[in-house]
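Hi support team,

I've been running sequence recovery on a batch of backbones for a student project. Most finish fine, but this one hangs at about 90% for roughly twenty minutes before it completes. I'm not sure whether the input is malformed or the queue is just slow. I've pasted the structure tokens below so you can try to reproduce it. Let me know if you need the job ID as well.

Thanks,
M.K.
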């Protein structure tokens, strides 16, 4: 078992009590609980730690922070707490997992394999794409899925945001601090965002809202985005809107693609669990966070699921210890 405060990843032939795949609030919370229980834990965090929460400008609804906290600061705090209790953290992507044996094997991008008695899948989700012409071509050259990451590059420029939920509205509000104008494009008349978010949006002078519209094409030169072709879904008219960038915030899908041979996903790719537990249909494999939550998708819910997964892991190890 790891000593408290140790955060150096051991050799890949070590057998951990638990490998946690994912470093959002679900993964970190699992690690905190398991570390405090004296179990050896490896978090395979991905190439960017903290998950989507780390990309959020300000989190106002996580308990304990009455003035709000940046998503990056919140996830950094979680990471520090997990490391305090001995969790090791590897910044690499999982490309394959063999979960069928008693000792699980998790393969990462650098070619190493990590073994564990249990696995918590806290893989989160990834951004949905528009699948329109120009989206891939101008990725990183005006097309972005993270305003917090890239917003500053559009200082005093025009940016468009696509989406109608809290994420899209939050991105538009954030970008309004830098951009000369922000155009929020939504395919419907009504927004899914909370009223408090819409109230905040309505008070910002440099945000223009376009409803009943979809992006048909992203247009640019050989270097960067120049404009967006927007279609009105009511009358089918199309017009070009000048924009230096476009931020796409239309939701997410679970990051479970590496589980190609697994029967623990539903038809939409979400991980399925038994009843109110975090147990999957594979012994010793547990699921927590957005990848197993198609409804709520909130940081505080993901954290609570991470707690449940850790308790389920401890129960499993207590019963199955003689088998290892």
């Amino acid at each position: 078992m790891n000593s408290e405060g140790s955060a150096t990843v051991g050799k890949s032939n070590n057998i951990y009590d638990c490998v946690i795949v994912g470093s959002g609030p679900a993964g970190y919370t699992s690690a905190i609980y398991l570390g405090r229980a004296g179990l050896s834990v490896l978090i395979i965090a991905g190439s960017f730690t903290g998950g989507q929460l780390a990309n959020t400008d300000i989190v106002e609804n996580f308990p304990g922070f009455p003035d709000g906290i940046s998503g990056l600061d919140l996830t950094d705090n979680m990471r520090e707490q997990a490391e305090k209790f001995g969790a090791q953290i590897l910044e690499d992507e999982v490309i394959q997992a063999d979960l069928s044996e008693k000792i699980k094997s998790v393969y990462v991008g650098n070619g190493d394999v990590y073994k564990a008695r249990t696995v918590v899948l806290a893989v989160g989700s990834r951004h949905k794409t528009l699948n329109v012409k120009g989206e891939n071509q101008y990725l990183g050259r005006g097309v972005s899925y993270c305003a917090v990451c890239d917003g500053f590059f559009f200082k005093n420029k025009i940016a468009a945001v696509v989406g109608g939920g809290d994420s899209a509205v939050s991105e538009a509000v954030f970008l309004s601090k830098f951009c000369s104008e922000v155009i929020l494009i939504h395919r419907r008349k009504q927004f899914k965002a909370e009223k408090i978010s819409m109230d905040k949006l309505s008070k910002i002078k440099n945000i223009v809202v376009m409803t009943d519209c979809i992006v048909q094409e992203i247009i640019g030169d050989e270097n960067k985005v120049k404009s967006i072709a927007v279609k009105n879904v009511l009358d089918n008219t199309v017009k070009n809107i000048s924009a230096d960038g476009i931020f796409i915030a239309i939701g997410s899908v679970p990051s479970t693609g590496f589980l190609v041979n697994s029967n623990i996903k539903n038809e939409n790719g979400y991980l399925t669990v038994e009843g109110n537990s975090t147990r999957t249909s594979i012994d010793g494999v547990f699921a927590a966070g957005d990848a197993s939550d198609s409804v709520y998708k909130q940081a505080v819910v993901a954290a609570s699921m991470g707690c449940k997964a850790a308790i389920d892991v401890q129960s499993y190890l207590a019963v199955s210890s003689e088998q290892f």
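--
Follow-up from support: It reproduced on our side and the slowdown came from queue contention, not your input. DSSP finds six helices and 17 strands in the chain. No action needed from you.
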